[in-house]
């Protein structure tokens, strides 16, 4: 429950349980490591605040999940690798990059509510928005007016993000993880909320198909009546899935 | 016509919650002017009938821009004309609205206002100075030290690290070891102006009580907010789940041993006097076993801590009216120029002779 610093102060993390951690839990966008306090209580786990969230300082430059994985990998020396990596939402994207970059350090992966791929092609912003953006670039529309428009049309995450975190959000939203799914050798368990409206179960089903096609170990478990915040809504379900797989 | 003026918002982490307090006060009091202070520091005269959501995207429509002039008889100025309020009800939380900056400006403009004056406001917002002042008058406090380069662990962990300045629980963290304390102080954007550290009391209870100073010094019921498992409150828990101040888990009135309750009440009175509180303030204590420590003071608490006045019962309107009455009864600050009667100037001779 108390924080410890890792990676020369780049990361602050909740260290749970006793002994050298064998579980690494990565939280979602706009959340923090404490999301896992209940689910992983007493287990040898560490749940960092990812850069730009909670106590951890924001990255100096615009990075995506790959950049986040490069920061998180600096913790690996302090863990009892290979570890079980738990990823919720955005944290699951980081988990997949970590598993591809460091197959030797990742024994297994539990993903919940992770936007791994897009169900339909990204929509272009409406023409009026694009025109306004152009007008803003050439100085005809003020930055304040542009910001008001952005706030009106942006997602809640976008509106809440400030400074470099907003650029990072734009970057990570554009990413998809089909390649990582077809590559990471560690077994992947997809634990999904049946009512997840942010990242519907269909995403998990397609991820499952990609893994199966690539001949890689994968399983899917859908928890009915649960939404996107599964680690908080039903911490016991996440705990059970973790305990079955912890190395 | 001259009437009271409610000011809220401001460049602060608690900008949004201040709007809620300001609108509550305006609605309860009725005939008032409302000044919205933006996140970037501009002033606007706004319709007191607006709803909170009207501020969600910044300055509401039909707002009229004001200036603030820090000269006697000026203050809030609309189209070159001072608004001349009977008194200002300061509903700003955190930042320059609570830390003495706005109070200093209003002093210079000769305005009367609710809440403590400039010096007491600044003291309430500086955790290091406040803790030291309370210790100096013999009130029980936890050891609280400034974190800095080369500072070694003054006591054992776990620690609670807090931004030295600031009112909300934003940036407060519980950490295990001294290295983490220092790392956090180096990197946290909330601790750029300094950080203080004190021992984290495992299993301690938070105890809060409000105090008001008019028509006489009075204490509210005592509440015990219920902490999340093993942690401290975050800004989210304190504020974002607005159903307001009543949404967080709490026990009100707190179940306390009569002796402990009596001690807390006595300490609260002494804090009110030692910290120069005025208007309505909330004092936070930490309790562990039979021990009580003065923790922090909030000189302009959210919703003016109106929900705490259940015993004796006191309506919001009465609470705000009493604050206003106190401000009206308190003359604007007068600065002394005694001893500067020109004698020293007349006998001084040429400045050039002083430089040689």
Please characterize this protein's 3D structure:
The complex is a heterodimer of chains A (247) and B (356). In chain A, 36% of the residues lie in helices and 18% in strands. By secondary structure, chain A is an alpha/beta fold. In chain A, helix 1 crosses helix 2. The radius of gyration of chain A is 19 Å and the shape is globular. In chain A, 41% of the residues are buried. Chain B is of the alpha+beta class and 356 residues long. Chain B has three domains: 5-113, 3-Layer(aba) Sandwich (Rossmann fold), CATH 3.40.50; 134-138 and 203-329, D-amino Acid Aminotransferase, Chain A, domain 1 (2-Layer Sandwich), CATH 3.30.470.20; 143-199, Dna Ligase, domain 1 (2-Layer Sandwich). Chain B has helices at 15-29, 95-98, 101-109, 118-125, 127-136, 178-187, 235-240, 258-274, 316-329, 343-346, 351-355; strands at 5-9, 33-37, 43-46, 64-69, 75-78, 81-82, 88-90, 145-147, 159-163, 173-175, 195-199, 205-212, 218-225, 250-251, 280-288, 291-298. In chain B, the strands form three sheets. Chain B has a seven-stranded mixed beta sheet with strand order 6-5-4-3-2-1-7. Chain B has a five-stranded antiparallel beta sheet with strand order 14-13-12-15-16. In chain B, strands 8-11-9-10 form a four-stranded antiparallel beta sheet, with helices on one face. In chain B, a hairpin with a 5-residue loop joins strand 4 and strand 5 (75-78). The relative contact order of chain B is 0.14. The model of chain B is unreliable at 237-247 (pLDDT under 50).
Q: Any key phrases for this structure?
A:
heterodimer, A: 247 residues, alpha/beta, Rossmann fold, 2 domains, 10 helices, 36% helix, globular, B: 356 residues, alpha+beta, D-amino Acid Aminotransferase, Chain A, domain 1, Dna Ligase, domain 1, 5-stranded antiparallel beta sheet, 11 helices, 16 strands, 29% helix
């Amino acid at each position: 429950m108390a924080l410890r610093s890792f990676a020369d102060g780049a990361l602050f993390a909740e260290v749970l349980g006793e002994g050298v951690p064998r579980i690494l839990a990565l939280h979602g966008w706009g959340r923090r490591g404490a999301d896992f306090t209940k689910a992983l209580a007493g287990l040898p786990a560490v749940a960092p605040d990812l850069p730009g969230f909670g106590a951890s300082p924001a990255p100096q430059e615009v990075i995506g999940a790959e950049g986040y994985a490069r920061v998180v990998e600096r913790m690996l020396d302090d863990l009892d690798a290979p570890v079980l990596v738990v990823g919720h939402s955005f944290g699951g994207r980081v988990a997949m990059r970590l598993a591809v970059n460091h197959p030797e350090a990742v024994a297994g992966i539990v993903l919940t509510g992770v936007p791994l791929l897009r169900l339909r092609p990204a929509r272009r912003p409406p023409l009026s928005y694009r025109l306004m953006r152009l007008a803003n670039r050439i100085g005809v529309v003020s930055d304040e007016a542009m910001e008001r428009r952005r706030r009106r049309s942006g997602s809640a995450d976008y509106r809440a993000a400030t400074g470099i975190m907003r650029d990072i959000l734009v970057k990570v939203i554009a990413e998809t993880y089909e390649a990582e799914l077809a590559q990471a050798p560690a077994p992947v368990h997809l634990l999904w909320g049946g009512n997840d409206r942010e990242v519907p179960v269909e995403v998990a089903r397609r991820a499952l198909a990609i893994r199966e096609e690539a001949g890689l170990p994968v399983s899917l478990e859908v928890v009915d009546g649960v939404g996107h915040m599964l680690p908080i809504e039903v911490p016991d379900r996440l705990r059970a899935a973790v305990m079955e797989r912890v190395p | 016509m001259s009437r009271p003026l409610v000011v809220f918002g401001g460049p602060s982490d608690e900008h949004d919650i201040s709007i809620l307090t300001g609108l509550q006060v305006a609605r309860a009091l009725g005939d008032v002017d409302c000044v919205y202070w933006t996140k970037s520091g501009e002033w606007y005269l706004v319709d007191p009938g607006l709803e909170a959501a009207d501020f969600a995207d910044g300055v509401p429509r039909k707002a009229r821009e004001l200036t603030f002039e820090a000269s006697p008889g000026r203050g809030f100025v609309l189209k070159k004309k001072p608004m001349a309020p009977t008194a200002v009800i300061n509903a700003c939380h955190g930042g320059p609205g609570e830390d003495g900056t706005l109070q200093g400006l209003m002093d210079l403009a000769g305005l009367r206002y609710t809440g403590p004056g400039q010096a007491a406001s600044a003291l309430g917002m500086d955790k290091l100075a406040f803790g030291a002042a309370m210790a100096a008058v013999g009130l029980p406090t936890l050891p609280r030290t400034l974190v800095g380069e080369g500072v070694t662990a003054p006591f054992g962990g776990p620690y609670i690290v807090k931004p030295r300045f600031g009112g909300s629980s934003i940036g407060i963290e519980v950490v295990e070891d001294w290295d983490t304390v220092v790392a956090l102080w180096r990197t946290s954007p909330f601790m750029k102006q300094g950080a203080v550290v004190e021992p984290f009391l495992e299993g301690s209870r938070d105890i809060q009580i409000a105090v008001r100073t008019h028509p006489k010094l009075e204490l509210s019921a005592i509440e015990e907010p219920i902490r999340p498992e093993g942690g401290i409150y975050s800004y989210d828990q304190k504020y974002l789940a607005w159903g307001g101040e009543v949404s967080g888990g709490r026990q009100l009135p707190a179940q306390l041993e009569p002796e402990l309750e009596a001690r807390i009440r006595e300490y609260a009175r002494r804090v009110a006097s030692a910290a120069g509180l005025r208007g309505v303030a909330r004092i936070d204590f930490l309790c562990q076993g039979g021990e009580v420590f003065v923790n922090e003071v909030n000189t302009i608490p959210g919703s003016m801590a109106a929900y705490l006045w259940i015993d004796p019962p006191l309506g919001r309107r009465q609470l705000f009216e009493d604050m206003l009455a106190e401000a009206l009864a308190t003359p604007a600050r007068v600065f002394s120029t005694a001893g500067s009667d020109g004698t020293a100037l007349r006998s001084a001779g040429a400045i050039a002779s002083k430089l040689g």
